[in-house]
Amino acid sequence: MRVTRAQYSAFSQTVAAIPILDLDRARRDMPADRATRTTMIEISQRFSFDAAHHLDAGAAENRRLHGHSFYVEVVLRGEPDAGTGFLRDFGQVDAALKAVRDLLDHRLLNEVEGLGNPTLENIARFIHARAKAALPEVARVRVERPSYGQSCTYEGT
Known about the structure:
This protein has helices at residues 5-10, 32-35, 60-63, 90-104, 120-134, and strands at residues 13-21, 37-53, 66-78, 138-145, 150-155. By secondary structure, the protein is of the alpha+beta class. The chain has a single domain, classed as Tetrahydropterin Synthase, Chain A. Strand 4 and strand 5 form a beta hairpin. The chain is elongated, with a radius of gyration of 18 Å. Residues 21-27 have low confidence and may be disordered.
Protein backbone atom coordinates (compact mmCIF):
# COMPACT_ATOMS: atom_id res chain seq x y z
CA MET A 1 0.00 0.00 0.00
CA ARG A 2 1.43 3.36 -0.98
CA VAL A 3 1.07 6.08 1.64
CA THR A 4 1.19 9.74 0.72
CA ARG A 5 3.10 12.23 2.83
CA ALA A 6 -0.19 13.92 3.79
CA GLN A 7 -1.68 10.62 4.99
CA TYR A 8 1.46 9.80 6.97
CA SER A 9 1.64 13.27 8.54
CA ALA A 10 -2.02 13.15 9.57
CA PHE A 11 -1.06 10.57 12.17
CA SER A 12 2.22 12.15 13.24
CA GLN A 13 1.79 12.09 17.00
CA THR A 14 0.60 9.23 19.18
CA VAL A 15 0.44 8.47 22.88
CA ALA A 16 0.13 5.00 24.39
CA ALA A 17 0.30 3.40 27.84
CA ILE A 18 2.04 0.06 28.12
CA PRO A 19 2.44 -2.28 31.10
CA ILE A 20 5.95 -3.03 32.37
CA LEU A 21 7.32 -5.05 35.28
CA ASP A 22 8.13 -3.18 38.47
CA LEU A 23 9.81 -5.67 40.79
CA ASP A 24 10.23 -3.08 43.54
CA ARG A 25 6.46 -2.57 43.96
CA ALA A 26 5.17 -6.13 44.34
CA ARG A 27 2.01 -6.33 46.48
CA ARG A 28 1.10 -9.34 48.60
CA ASP A 29 -2.65 -8.82 48.20
CA MET A 30 -2.60 -9.33 44.42
CA PRO A 31 -1.69 -12.28 42.19
CA ALA A 32 2.01 -12.21 41.35
CA ASP A 33 1.54 -11.31 37.69
CA ARG A 34 -0.68 -8.30 38.49
CA ALA A 35 1.23 -7.22 41.60
CA THR A 36 4.43 -6.51 39.68
CA ARG A 37 2.94 -4.44 36.83
CA THR A 38 2.87 -0.67 36.52
CA THR A 39 2.14 1.64 33.63
CA MET A 40 4.67 3.47 31.54
CA ILE A 41 3.83 6.02 28.86
CA GLU A 42 5.05 6.02 25.27
CA ILE A 43 4.69 8.98 22.96
CA SER A 44 5.77 9.13 19.35
CA GLN A 45 6.46 11.71 16.70
CA ARG A 46 6.73 11.05 12.97
CA PHE A 47 8.58 12.86 10.24
CA SER A 48 9.63 12.17 6.70
CA PHE A 49 12.54 13.02 4.47
CA ASP A 50 13.68 12.45 0.90
CA ALA A 51 17.25 11.49 0.14
CA ALA A 52 19.52 9.76 -2.34
CA HIS A 53 22.12 7.09 -1.76
CA HIS A 54 23.98 4.20 -3.35
CA LEU A 55 25.09 0.97 -1.75
CA ASP A 56 28.28 -1.00 -2.32
CA ALA A 57 26.54 -4.36 -1.98
CA GLY A 58 23.34 -6.05 -3.04
CA ALA A 59 21.45 -5.86 -6.33
CA ALA A 60 22.81 -3.85 -9.26
CA GLU A 61 20.08 -1.22 -8.93
CA ASN A 62 21.25 -0.53 -5.37
CA ARG A 63 24.74 0.25 -6.60
CA ARG A 64 23.46 3.08 -8.81
CA LEU A 65 22.57 6.44 -7.34
CA HIS A 66 18.85 6.40 -6.47
CA GLY A 67 16.48 8.06 -4.04
CA HIS A 68 13.72 7.22 -1.59
CA SER A 69 11.08 8.85 0.54
CA PHE A 70 11.74 7.76 4.11
CA TYR A 71 9.16 7.84 6.89
CA VAL A 72 10.36 7.82 10.50
CA GLU A 73 8.65 7.25 13.83
CA VAL A 74 10.56 8.08 17.02
CA VAL A 75 9.14 6.63 20.26
CA LEU A 76 9.88 8.07 23.71
CA ARG A 77 9.17 6.01 26.85
CA GLY A 78 9.02 6.96 30.51
CA GLU A 79 6.93 8.35 33.30
CA PRO A 80 5.22 11.71 32.81
CA ASP A 81 6.27 14.65 34.94
CA ALA A 82 3.93 14.91 37.93
CA GLY A 83 3.60 18.67 37.55
CA THR A 84 3.01 19.00 33.81
CA GLY A 85 1.62 15.57 32.99
CA PHE A 86 4.03 15.43 30.01
CA LEU A 87 6.59 12.76 29.34
CA ARG A 88 8.09 15.39 27.06
CA ASP A 89 6.46 18.45 25.52
CA PHE A 90 5.73 17.71 21.84
CA GLY A 91 7.15 21.11 20.92
CA GLN A 92 10.54 20.01 22.28
CA VAL A 93 10.25 16.66 20.49
CA ASP A 94 9.39 18.35 17.20
CA ALA A 95 12.31 20.79 17.48
CA ALA A 96 14.82 18.02 18.26
CA LEU A 97 13.60 15.85 15.41
CA LYS A 98 13.61 18.77 12.97
CA ALA A 99 17.35 19.10 13.65
CA VAL A 100 17.83 15.38 12.86
CA ARG A 101 15.66 15.65 9.74
CA ASP A 102 17.69 18.60 8.49
CA LEU A 103 20.83 16.40 8.55
CA LEU A 104 19.18 13.92 6.15
CA ASP A 105 16.57 15.66 4.01
CA HIS A 106 17.52 16.21 0.35
CA ARG A 107 21.03 14.94 0.97
CA LEU A 108 23.25 12.29 -0.53
CA LEU A 109 23.25 9.94 2.46
CA ASN A 110 26.68 8.56 1.56
CA GLU A 111 28.08 12.01 2.45
CA VAL A 112 26.34 12.40 5.84
CA GLU A 113 29.03 12.41 8.51
CA GLY A 114 28.64 9.59 11.03
CA LEU A 115 26.08 7.61 9.03
CA GLY A 116 28.41 5.14 7.35
CA ASN A 117 26.98 2.85 4.67
CA PRO A 118 23.45 4.27 4.21
CA THR A 119 21.47 1.07 4.74
CA LEU A 120 18.03 1.18 6.33
CA GLU A 121 19.61 -0.34 9.46
CA ASN A 122 22.29 2.34 9.72
CA ILE A 123 19.80 5.13 9.06
CA ALA A 124 17.67 3.87 11.98
CA ARG A 125 20.76 3.70 14.26
CA PHE A 126 21.88 7.18 13.18
CA ILE A 127 18.49 8.76 13.85
CA HIS A 128 18.25 6.97 17.22
CA ALA A 129 21.66 8.23 18.33
CA ARG A 130 20.99 11.84 17.29
CA ALA A 131 17.47 11.90 18.74
CA LYS A 132 18.57 10.29 22.02
CA ALA A 133 21.32 12.88 22.46
CA ALA A 134 18.62 15.58 22.56
CA LEU A 135 15.80 13.49 24.07
CA PRO A 136 17.06 10.90 26.61
CA GLU A 137 13.62 9.24 26.70
CA VAL A 138 14.01 7.92 23.13
CA ALA A 139 13.34 4.17 23.21
CA ARG A 140 13.16 3.17 19.54
CA VAL A 141 13.15 4.40 15.98
CA ARG A 142 11.34 2.91 13.01
CA VAL A 143 12.35 3.88 9.47
CA GLU A 144 10.08 2.92 6.57
CA ARG A 145 10.24 2.92 2.79
CA PRO A 146 6.55 2.27 2.06
CA SER A 147 7.00 2.22 -1.71
CA TYR A 148 9.05 -0.96 -1.20
CA GLY A 149 7.11 -2.26 1.82
CA GLN A 150 10.32 -2.17 3.87
CA SER A 151 11.07 -1.00 7.39
CA CYS A 152 13.68 -1.27 10.10
CA THR A 153 13.20 -0.76 13.83
CA TYR A 154 16.14 0.05 16.08
CA GLU A 155 15.66 -0.21 19.82
CA GLY A 156 18.72 1.06 21.65
CA THR A 157 19.76 1.62 25.22
